[in-house]
């Protein structure tokens, strides 16, 4: 009996040690996404949209810095699917980025679990399906990373947190839009702008028909709210404003900003901002929330305006009067660019870590690589209209780049993306940037197209150090902001202008650099940056996931039963602990 008691004591000690180790680790948060088509009428006409768990837009993912996140995605569409977590840096794990350069797609009727840690990040982001222009039909939602309690935020805790998803919208679904692009046509003017998946409030009976469901955001008078705004649209820059209310900018894509008031702010495709808005107006009426198209002929685009309602709990009437005006600079982009330049990094605020954001002195680091990426209007290659970056129209590989490296698949891509634009005719190629591990790269985004573009780099926050009209030259470096340029993942490049960014290449993996304009992205305006640690250690890159999908040259490795093993044992930690405790309880009578 004594021996049994000693064995039980020793067993319980081991169980307690295991439990303490599990509980001391960063918490797990899990979500289930069922991605399917539903019928909705955001602009008053029934159409097919992409929903998550039957909802359009999808649910908000709400986590805390360093949480481990498991998202099981079930594909109920009739085509392949990936989910991309835009702005989530996927430290050491480009395997989870959800883009065709790193992941094989989830086939129809299959499910796959993304599992990653939101390591050392805070802020406002969003997710969406990146394949086949699917974002133009929905499938998007907000992704919030909150500060840990021990890290102070640089403003008083808001009374509430509000998500606003804005974006241009077509009554045609993504399949029809894709067919138009394949036929060499432009998408044309959008049919409207949605706010949280809903059409405009009927502020004008001529421009807005009856029967459209609109978004209402209810607030309490005198309280301050954090309002997170994301442009999840197809290709249109939008000006965001709230009637009679100031927008105090506080954060953008994971970086706290110098706090400044704006009456309106241009939000370009793929960008996210947090505003602090105090409900300090009288409640005689509701107020308009507006998102309207920028840099267009206002008279022709009036109907491409999203309008929602800000409703005080003690409001005495409906919103009235004309909409608050947008900046009157249709043919002068100087206002918008100066506004963009005014957005600066709060160097004294703590981000995800206790040290101030400005302790990373990016302006004093020597640049190791320089890439000038030039965008031009669409060109024809082999008789097809294509979009290019530095003369190259990207072709997605049949075997994702990261998988090709892992299994030594030859010829999947080439590490030959040029540092300066090609001088010969444009070409189609799977051409990738060869990044230097722990290098410091300068990228010039030269937009010689006639329309606005915004560019996104996965895996990183980039420092926006300069922008101006004309052609970039080496003398342009004299204008760079080397102290408090905002760090973010998506930056605009104005037509006929350049934007300069700096990025520290410390995240091993394969990372997508693309235009966020869905039409140009679909037609090939992207590349990838490949970062390899020559020492090949798990400290700088996690191993390939157990549930990795295989395609292309590696299709023979895929087994149907692999899909059922969607979550690793760490993802089911709570179940594991429960089973261990049950085992202890069951054994107690035996050793009693």
From TrEMBL:
GO MF annotations, alphabetized: copper ion binding; oxidoreductase activity
Residue span(s) of domain Plastocyanin-like: 35-148, 161-314, 399-535
Cofactors (names): Cu cation
Claim: Lipoprotein is one of the keywords in the record: yes
Signal peptide stretch: 1-24
Membrane association type: Lipid-anchor; GPI-anchor
GO CC entries: plasma membrane; side of membrane
Keyword tags: Cell membrane, Copper, Glycoprotein, GPI-anchor, Lipoprotein, Membrane, Metal-binding, Signal
Principal subcellular localisation of the protein: membrane
Protein localization: Cell membrane
Transmembrane segments: none
Pfam families noted in UniProt: Cu-oxidase (PF00394), Cu-oxidase_2 (PF07731), Cu-oxidase_3 (PF07732)
PANTHER family given in the database record: MONOCOPPER OXIDASE-LIKE PROTEIN SKU5 (PTHR11709:SF123), MULTI-COPPER OXIDASE (PTHR11709)
Family statement: Belongs to the multicopper oxidase family.
Official protein name in the record: Monocopper oxidase-like protein SKU5
Organism in which the protein naturally occurs: Populus euphratica
Designated gene of the protein: LOC105121363
């Amino acid at each position: 009996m004594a021996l049994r008691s000693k064995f039980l004591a020793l067993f319980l000690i081991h169980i307690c040690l295991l439990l303490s180790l599990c509980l001391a680790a960063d918490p797990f948060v899990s979500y289930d996404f069922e991605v399917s088509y539903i019928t909705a009428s955001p602009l008053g006409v029934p159409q097919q949209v992409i929903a998550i768990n039957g909802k359009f837009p999808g649910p908000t993912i709400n986590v805390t810095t360093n949480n481990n996140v498991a998202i099981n995605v079930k594909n109920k569409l009739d085509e392949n699917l990936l989910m991309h977590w835009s702005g989530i840096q996927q430290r050491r794990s480009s395997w989870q980025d959800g883009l065709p350069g790193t992941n094989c797609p989830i086939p129809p009727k299959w499910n796959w679990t993304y599992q990653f840690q939101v390591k050392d990040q805070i802020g406002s982001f969003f997710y969406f399906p990146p394949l086949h222009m699917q974002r133009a039909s929905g499938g998007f939602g907000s992704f919030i990373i909150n500060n840990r309690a021990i890290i102070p935020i640089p403003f008083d805790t808001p009374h509430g947190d509000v998500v606003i998803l804005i974006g241009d919208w077509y009554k045609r679904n993504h399949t029809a839009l894709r067919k138009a692009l394949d036929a060499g046509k432009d998408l044309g003017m959008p049919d409207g702008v949605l706010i949280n998946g809903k059409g405009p409030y009927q502020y004008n009976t001529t421009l807005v028909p009856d029967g459209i469901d609109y978004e209402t955001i209810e607030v309490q008078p005198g309280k301050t709210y954090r309002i997170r705004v994301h442009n999840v649209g197809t290709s249109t820059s939008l000006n965001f404003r709230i009637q009679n209310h100031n927008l105090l900018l506080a954060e953008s894509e994971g970086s706290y900003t110098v706090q400044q008031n704006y009456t309106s702010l241009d939000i370009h495709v793929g960008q996210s901002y947090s505003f602090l808005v105090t409900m300090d107006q009288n409640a005689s009426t509701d107020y308009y929330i507006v998102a309207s198209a920028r840099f267009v002929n206002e008279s022709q685009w009036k109907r491409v305006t999203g309008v929602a309602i800000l409703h005080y709990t003690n409001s005495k009437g409906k919103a009235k009067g004309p909409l608050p005006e947008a900046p009157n600079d249709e043919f002068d982009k100087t206002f918008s660019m100066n506004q963009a330049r005014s957005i600066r990094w709060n160097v004294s605020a703590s981000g995800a870590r206790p040290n101030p954001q400005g302790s990373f002195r990016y302006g004093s680091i020597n640049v190791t690589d320089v890439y000038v990426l030039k965008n031009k209007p669409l060109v024809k290659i082999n008789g097809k209209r294509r979009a290019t970056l530095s003369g190259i129209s990207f072709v997605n590989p049949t075997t994702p780049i990261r998988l090709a490296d892992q299994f030594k698949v030859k010829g999947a891509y080439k590490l030959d993306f040029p540092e300066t634009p090609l001088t010969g005719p444009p070409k189609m190629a799977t051409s990738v940037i060869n990044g230097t591990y722990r290098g410091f790269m300068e990228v010039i985004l030269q937009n010689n197209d006639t329309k606005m573009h915004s560019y996104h780099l996965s895996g990183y926050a980039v420092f926006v150090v300069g922008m101006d009209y004309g052609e970039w030259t080496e003398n342009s470096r004299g204008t760079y902001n080397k102290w408090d340029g905002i760090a973010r993942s998506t930056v605009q490049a104005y037509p006929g202008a350049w934007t300069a960014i700096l990025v520290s290449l410390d995240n091993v993996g394969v990372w997508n650099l693309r235009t966020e304009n869905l039409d140009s992205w679909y037609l090939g305006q992207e590349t990838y940056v490949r970062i390899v640690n020559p020492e090949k250690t798990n400290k700088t890159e996690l191993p390939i996931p157990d549930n990795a999908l295989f395609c292309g040259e590696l299709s023979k490795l895929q087994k149907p039963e692999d899909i059922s093993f969607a979550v690793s044992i760490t993802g089911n930690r709570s179940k594991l602990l429960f089973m261990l405790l049950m085992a202890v309880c069951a054994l107690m009578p035996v050793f009693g």
